[in-house]
Amino acid sequence: MRHSGRRTGRAAGGRTRPGGPWTSAAALLGAAALVVSLAPAAAAATGAAGPPGPAETAGRATATPALVSGIREQAPAEDSAADAARAYLDQRRDRYRIPDARHDLVPGGTVGAHGEETVRLRQRHRGVPVLGGEYVVRMENHDGRRTVTGTSGKYFTGLTTGTTDGIGSALAVERAVDAVLGDLDDHHFAGRPAAAPGTDPADLLHGTDHGLVVLPAGPGVLTRHITVRGTGAADGAPVVREVYIDARAGYPVLQYSGVQTFGAERPAARAAARPVPRTPAARPLAAAEKGTGVRLDGTEVPLDIEHDETEGTYVLRDSTRIPQDDYHYGVLSTWDARGREVADTSGTWPDGIREFSSPAPAFGADATASGAVDAHWAAGRVYDYFRAEHGRDSLDGHGMTVNSLVGVTGSYGTPYANAFWDGQKMVYGGGDEEYLPFSAALDVVGHEMTHGVIAHTANLMYAGQSGALNEAIADYFGNTIEASVYGIPADDPDSGLLGERLCRTKGPRACATRDLDDGRTTTGSFVGVDFLNDNGGVHLNSTIFGGALWDARRELGAAATDRIVYRALTRYLTPLDGFTEGRAAVLAAAKDLGTGAARLKKLKGAFTAHGIVPGWELALGNDSQVLLDRINTAGTELGAGGGWWAASRSNEDGSEPYSVWAGRADGKGQPRLMSPNDGRYHTRPATDGRTVVWQAHGPGGVDILARSLSGGPVRTLWHGRSVGGATGVDGDVVAFDYYTYGGRSGIVHLSLKDPQDEHAVGGGTYHRAHGSSVSHGKVAYQDMSRVGLTATYAWTTRVEDVATGEDRAVQQYDGSTSLGPTALNGTHVFWLLDEGLDANATTLRRAALDGSEVADLSPGSGPDALNAYDLAVSEDAAVVGTYLPDTVIRNESTPKLYQFAANGTPGAPGTRLGRVSCNRGAQTGASAPGGSQVIWLDSTTGRTDVVTRAKPTGRCG
C-alpha cells in the first residue's frame, strides 16, 4: 500500500493541524440539525411586507415551523409567562406539532419590558436535553392578559432515540480525554519536544461530565457531553474542548473549542489542569471615587474607581454603573493578569491575581502599558451603550459583574496577541512587538463583551454557521460602539475595520483583522471547513453576515439598525441558527419595529448583496471529481492504495454509527460496504487494493478489522484499549498506532494471515513510538526512547524490514527537533520534521531505505517553505497537507494540499508540482492511490465529500 502516514505520537511535540480529524462534525448532525443551521436550511426567509395574517416558515427535518409571524392569538391564563407560552403551544398542536409542551419544553428564561415578554423554552426528549432544541414564544402582556405575537426556533419532532446510557460517566470522560489527546497528537507537531518525556499526557487534561444530551440528527443520537480542559503535552497549549460521546458505543461524535476569541488562532500556552472554575473572593466595602488614567493612544480619560479602605489604595473597580441592592453587588473590575499564561485563565479563575491598584486616583504608566486603563474605560463605554440604547443591565441583563483580565501571555511567557470571552469573563492578551495589548481597541472590548450578551440571549453555538453568526453579531456591536464613541460616520471607508487600532507601526487597514466592508464578504467567498479549523469557520465566514448587517446600518441608519439587530438577537435567534435563519430573524424584528416597506426592501437587499438568500449553499462547487458525497462522519480518516480508496460514512442525516465503504479510484463502479452494521463506529480505513483494514470503536475498546475487497468474512486482527492515527496495510503486513492508558503511544505491526504474529514498539513511559506507515514489507515510524537509565532521550526515524526483523535508524536528532508522520514507497522513506528553523514551516525529508541519500524535497525555511502537517506518498509523488497560521482571516489559512515528485531532485524545476486543488475551504486526509492521483476529504461545499484529482492543478490564483 502507498500509505498515508499520519502522526500519532506526542513524543515529538506538536503543531496544531487546524482541521483535525473531525472531518464533518456539522454533517454528523445531519439535515435534521447542524447541517440545517451551521449550514442552514434552504427555508424561505420571512419578513417581506405582505398581506396581514399568519406567516409561517417551515422547519427542516421537523414538523414545527421555524418562524411564525403576523399573529395575535390569546394565550391561556397562567401565573407565569413560561406556563402561558407552553399552554399556548399545547392549545395549538395542529400548527406547532409539539406533543406535550408542558413536559417536553422547560423554561429557559423570560425577558420582559414595555409590555412585551419573550419566553425561551428548551427541548427535552424523554427528559434528556436536546442540543440546540429551543423554541421562543413572543407575547404582549397587558394587565395579565397575554397575546402571542410570534414564535420561532427549533423543536425537533423526529426524535425517537432511547435515553438509556450504555457507557457511564467514567468511561465517557476517559474517551473524551482520549479523543482530545488523539486530535492533539494526530495533527500536532511543533518546534519543541514533549514537555516531559516521562509524563503521561493524559495527566494534563481532565474532563467534566455534564450528563446526557441528545444530538438532533434524524431519530437522535444519545451522547454524554464532556468538557475537557487542561494543557497539551507537546507545546503547553491551552485546551478547552466540548466533546459529545455516543452513549452506547463510546465514540466521540462531536468536538469543538469552547473559547470565543477575537481572532482565529492556535494559541500556544501552558497551564496545569484545574479542577473547577471559580469566582473572585468577596471584596471589602469601598467608596466610589473618580480617577484618571492615560490610554495607550495617549488620551487621558476619566475612570470610575473605588478607594479600598483595607489596602489604602485605589482600585479599578466601578460600582457606579450597575444598580446595587441587598442581593447582589455587580461591578466592573479590571484585574492584573500579567505573567499569567492564557491556559491559566481560560475557563478558570487564576489564583492570586488582584485588581489593578494605585496609591493615588491618577493611575500611572504601569496601568497604561498593561492595557488596564483601556480595558476599564472601554468596559464602561460598552456597558453604557447597552444600557442606554437597549435598556440592558450588564451582560446577562440582570446586573452581573463584568471582570476583565489584562496582560495575559502565551506559553512560557511568550507573547499572546488575542482576546477572548470564556463564558465568565473577558481575557486580553498583552500583545507583542507589533500588537498592543488587545484591550487597546474599543471594538475588541465591545466584541468580547457582546459575546457575553449573546451567551445570555440566543446562546449561538460557537461552531460552523451559528458560530459565524455569533462572531458577526459580536463584530457588529463592537464596531457600533466604537463608531458611537468616536463619532465615526457610516460612510467612512474605515468604519467596517475591526482591530485597526491595535498596531504599533502598521496603519489601520494593514492592522485590521477583519473588514465588514470587504467586497469579498459574500457567500461566494464562503470557506467550508471542519470544526477544528477555526471551529468550522466562525471567523473565516463571519464577515458574510456581519458585512450584510453593516451595509444595512449604512442604508437604514445606525439607531434603527442597532435596535433591529438587538431585537433579532434577544427575541428571535436560537442556538443552532445560521445565516438563513439569521436573515429571517432580522427581517421579522424589523417588521416588529414598524419598518416600512421601502426600508424593508433595502434591508433585504443588504442580505441579497452578500449572497444570503434561500438555498445559497447549493451554488458552492469545486474543481474535483466527487467519489463519495456527504459522508457525514467525524473523527475518521481516508485510505487509498492499489487504485482503490476506503472511507467512513454515516447515513444521510448523520445519525447512524459509521460504516466503511470502498471504491475504485477512477470512479467506476459502485462503492462497496465493507463493515458490519453492529452499532460500533468503523473508522480510519486503509487499503492496498486487495484488503481493507480499519478500526472499530465500541464500549469495550477498539478492534482492528479486515476484509478482502472481493468479499468474505470480516476478521478481527487485534483488540486494545485505544487506537490512534491511521491504519496501514500492504500485502500481509498491517500497521497502526495505539495508546496505553495515560496516552502513551506505541506502534504495532502484525501479519494479516496470522494476527498472533505481532510486534509492538513503545507504549511505555520512557519509550514511545508514533507515525507508523507500511509499504513493500517495511514499516517506518518515529521513535522516542530513553538512553539507558539517564534523563537523556533519543529521537529517531526508523525503518523495519518485517521479514528479516532488521530495524534501521534512518536519522537521529537532538531533543529540539520535532518529528511528524512517515510514509513509504518501494524505494524511499519520507517524513515531516520541524527543526525550529522557521516558526511557520516544516521540512519534507526523504531518504533511501538504507538511510542514505537524505534530501529535503521541501525546505524547513525560506520563501518556498510550507507549514505541513500530513503526508502521503505513491511511487511517483508525495503530497503534504499544509496550512498558514495567519493572523489575517482568509481562505489560504485553511488546510491545502501540495504535491512533489517522489524521485525529484530537491530544488530542481518540476520537483514541486504545486497545489493539488484550488478548491476553497479545508482539504484534509490526503491519500495516494497510485501515480500522481490524490484522493482527499474536501469541505468546500459546507459538507465533507471524498474527492479526487488525477494530477495537481499547479498554481492557484
Q: Can you characterise this structure?
A:
It is built from 17 helices and 52 strands. Strands 1, 2, 3, 4, 5, 6 and 7 form a seven-stranded antiparallel β-sheet that branches. Strands 12, 16, 17, 18, 20, 21 and 22 form a seven-stranded mixed β-sheet that branches. Helices cover 18% and strands 34% of the residues. Among the domains are: 62-154, no CATH class; 289-461, Elastase, domain 1, CATH 3.10.170.
Distance between the termini: 34 Å
| SS field, number of helical segments | 17
Question: CATH topology of the domain at 289-461, which one?
Answer: Elastase, domain 1
Overall form = globular
Computed CA radius of gyration, to the nearest angstrom: 28 Å
Mean pLDDT: 86
> The biggest beta sheet, please?
7 strands, antiparallel
Can you tell me the CATH class of the domain at 289-461? Alpha Beta
Assembly status: single chain
> What is the CATH architecture assignment of the domain at 289-461?
Roll
Structural class of the secondary elements? alpha+beta
Strand content: 25-35%
For the secondary structure, the number of strands is 52
Low-confidence sequence ranges: 1-51, 190-195, 266-279
Residue share in helix: 10-25%
